[in-house]
Write a structure and sequence with these properties.
Elements: E1 2-5, E2 8-11, H1 20-27, E3 46-49, E4 52-55, E5 68-70, H2 83-90, H3 100-113, H4 119-126, H5 136-146
Helix pairs in contact: 2-5
The protein binds FE2/S2 (inorganic) cluster (FES).
GO molecular function: 2 iron, 2 sulfur cluster binding; metal ion binding; oxidoreductase activity
Organism: Ramlibacter lithotrophicus
Keywords: 2Fe-2S, Iron, Iron-sulfur, Metal-binding, Oxidoreductase
Amino acid sequence: MQFTLNGQATSLEVDPDRTLLDVLRNTLGLKASRLGCGLGQCGACTVILGDHAVTSCDTPMWSVAGKSVTTLEGLGTRDAPHPLQAAFIEEQALQCGYCTSGMLMRAAALLQRDPQPAESDIKAALEGNLCRCGVQNRVVRAVQKACA
Ligand code: FES
């Protein structure tokens, strides 16, 4: 199966019914995308597939063939963070951090579509990404800061 992963052409022998999250974490060693519910309901595993955010825990590999996948590992680096990553740090938009990767990827997909989203659009985009620590307001502020 061929696809693009974080800008790199990638070719894998893989069961097409495995999930993208399983392959990312357990075959490719990319651990930023988290397993939360495993049911497509919490958003911890969110990545960008093509130009849309998807929950990778319920995305089968057969649907990834020929497409582009971006994970948190492809968003920015410690030395050159994506504006969203810098803003999350400045706004302290995380507590335990378990949901953060998914929040960042969902927000990155939003900003690709709409570089200047209204607050209501940010809240609507992120409503599928759950945070049990209660930092949602800080996340919204961070996304606003990233596109200011
Ligand atoms: Fe994928 Fe919860 S782990 S949505």
